[in-house]
Amino acid sequence: MTDVVKKVYDTEDDSHRIFLVVVDDSEEMLVALRFACMRAKSVGGRVALFRDIEPSDYHHWASVSDLMQQEAREAAEERLNELAQEVVELSGLIPSLYIRAGPIEEELIALINEEPTISVLVLAASASKDGPGPLVSHLIGKGTNSCRIPITIVPGNLSASQIDALA
Length: 167
Known about the structure:
By secondary structure, this protein is α/β, with parallel strands linked by helices. The chain has 6 helices and 5 strands; from the N terminus they run αβαβαβαβαβα.
């Protein structure tokens, strides 16, 4: 077991648990958010929100690409701030906020590895017939070997009362 993992798990209480939620535009993300908030509240932990900005594919004109990245970052900040209010209402604590730019799978694992206080990744699986979603599929496939923390995957079709009962 590495020192980073020991630091996260060898705590005398659960007050150091940080539940990381990946923020995207899916409906099921709100399920993961509520679960993380309620779980953090029940164990005395905290919530962290992560939003990834995909790199712009528009390389022909650097100024246009830079403007697109700036607008994407501003939109990410706005979305995280909106959700932070919800986290405060549900858990009673202000969340940590993270924004990164790059391929989401790489940036997520890098964040988890760089932040030793993050102890659980909470995702919600899509209820669609197309599968659980690309990030969940990646993490339960190739990604689990590179992730140093447990991954909680919540069914994306749970109601608020079902989530509250589970957490």
